Amino acid sequence: MNEDVTVAILAGGQSTRMGRDKSFVELTGKPLIARVIEEVNSLALPIIIIANQPETYQVLGLPVFTDVLPDRSSLAGLYSAVYHSPTDYTLCVACDMPFLNPPLLDHLLSLRTGYDAVVPMIGGHPQGLHALYRKTCLPVMLKRLEKKHLRIRDLVSLLNTCWVDEDTLRNYDPHLDSFINVNNAETLAAAEAKPNHH
Fold first, then answer.
1. Closest by alpha carbon to 166, among 196, 132, 110, 125?
2. Mind listing the pLDDT tens digit for each residue in 8-20?
3. Measured on CA atoms in the order 159, 99, 37, 112, is the torsion positive or negative?
4. CA 81: distance to chain centroid?
């Protein structure tokens, strides 16, 4: 049913805030990226990884692609994910979101028909690194990159986007844990303290 969807995990490069490659930072003994893979595995879709140190990620046994354009922004990561994806749609998630919610992700997939993108919106902020993009986005993304207009929020406003509101998100994920980014020592400590991680 979702044979036109691939999951892309955006691993980016060195994390300046963590001071090391954040994908492999451990949360209760398991690397963040391993948790992300575990959650998206349940969708039974092909998974690719976008990373600028591909050799580091080979151990995960998944196809790894580097950024198509070397500017290393999040937008370049999204562009690379959609570009390298073997399918028409690509569900893009960041490697530092250890509490992804498969039923919620499944719901996002179910909204894709007729849209270029399906993007959750929290507090007026589009969650562009937890969103679904179609190949039709590539020319728009490329144009933004060429002009150095790197804000994902500006990109998604130009696309034919299906916005998913907070109430809908909370039906699946009451505390919006899916959207927690563990990108520094504080958020890691907070995530460690969460009662519901497995």
1. 125
2. 999 975 455 545 5
3. negative
4. 9
